[in-house]
Amino acid sequence: MFDGYDSCSEDTSSSSSSEESEEEVAPLPSSLPIIKNNGQVYTYPDGKSGMATCEMCGMVGVRDAFYSKTKRFCSVSCSRSYSSNSKKASILARLQVTGKPPTKKAKVLQKQPLVAKLAAYAQYQATLQNQAKTKAAVSLESFSWGNYINSNSFIAAPVTCFKHAPMGTCWGDISENVRVEVPNTDCSLPTKVFWIAGIIKLAGYNALLRYEGFENDSGLDFWCNICGSDIHPVGWCAASGKPLVPPRTIQHKYTNWKAFLVKRLTGAKTLPPDFSQKVSESMQYPFKPCMRVEVVDKRHLCRTRVAVVESVIGGRLRLVYEESEDRTDDFWCHMHSPLIHHIGWSRSIGHRFKRSDITKKQDGHFDTPPHLFAKVKEVDQSGEWFKEGMKLEAIDPLNLSTICVATIRKVLADGFLMIGIDGSEAADGSDWFCYHATSPSIFPVGFCEINMIELTPPRGYTKLPFKWFDYLRETGSIAAPVKLFNKDVPNHGFRVGMKLEAVDLMEPRLICVATVTRIIHRLLRIHFDGWEEEYDQWVDCESPDLYPVGWCQLTGYQLQPPASQSSRESQSASSKQKKKAKSQQYKGHKKMTTLQLKEELLDGEDYNFLQGASDQESNGSANFYIKQEP
To answer: Do residue 265 and residue 301 come from a single domain?
Structure first.
């Protein structure tokens, strides 16, 4: 039975930063127009930005810094919350889901603060309790990966693509035609009995199974998570004293079922005997509640803060900022995220850090051991290295669907860099963000042009189409040397069209049904099923924010299903037109991101950053260079 089967091989405190590390902000040039907004100072080329009010949260801010072409929302979070009826804060989308013109109450809601909207909505909803429900998004309970894949003939990314996920490094030879022992649901016996089934199709952790004896009859085929507690290798029932009983539908087909099984299973593959043990071991996580870490400040990207691990689900951490008295000021990320570090990291490399108002550790809290954090590649900064003012291309952490013209603003220790997006930086540098020199989120000048990716030019830059050669000459800048960038390309196994579960990095507590739509070296374009392309995100192939199909079910995390048409009907016409305009490269570029840094963020309205990263294509070397022009 095990002939030809290769069993799986198993792979297998610091001081507190209590000192303030904030730097003084350089004075602004007197000749540069400035606009103050919500306590933050922003500079603009023309000084004619104007103001706008967010239709979701009511925040007033600089119009040019608002999200989307119509400038209706202050952030991607507000835009998505407004248009999705599956989210707690999507008031107007729920009011408009009937398809009728907005009521007078709905129009009033548009002008009220979110708290008032919630109260009015609760009253409005009470009047609709006895009315028929209109077509809405697929509910969490009704969504099934199996039905979704079967009905559309989708292909899921294999578990081996996700090294950080359970069984990602020891999945072994699990494939179609592998036999397993599973509960027999086609049986009238009062006790739980089992039967043998074969894998017909794999989709991540999920497998489509068919009971032995059904041949080509798919009538009782069923999907299950192969890592579930009811899935066992062939021989488990015999060793455990459990009965093997053929399904009632086919009991009449054979009189000698033992001889049938011997014939069918001779030379067949099954799971390794210690498979369930490996699953259990791969779901043990070193991070524990009450551990203290340094994590990026979601209100100010340029600095870190101390946070405490509140809970751990499948390696994902819910971190609560230490100053949060009601423990609602939180941030979600994976334990291997580049956004979290050991206590003392900021001071050691010269990164800005917000000193905690809490003078001593709370009882039970302790610093996370430094060795538990993801290691970055060591670099040699003694020779030719990145310098302040050098230009490059970078994924915008406030709008992950774009790669932008960027500048190195400060060189830190251990290979870390502070980077700003040209044309849209806060004057005090509060929206600079930190990437390591080996990060897959930064690219040499010319990367987008070579790989046919739309590069977002600086806001206010009118000389389009954008040309790096002209821009470097006009700004008196130099491009960061190509040889300093990470050009390693792992054989990651992803292919265009593969399905997976992906973190919505604009609201990192959410994990959604997603699809790989582009592969550029090791860079993946992730599309959230049912949503517009403007919500797509560039993510590294080794990002810890990507998971196999079935990961949420395995770990108990809630999966967000694809958005239906009804949940998106409140989106503006300009959002839909954007899809058609995408193919027109360099035409009508406008930066679609918000730079307002809110002092008070409501639940879910977080500033989010690219979590997990690297830089190139599926198989093959990358072409990094700047196009030379006469």
So the answer is: no
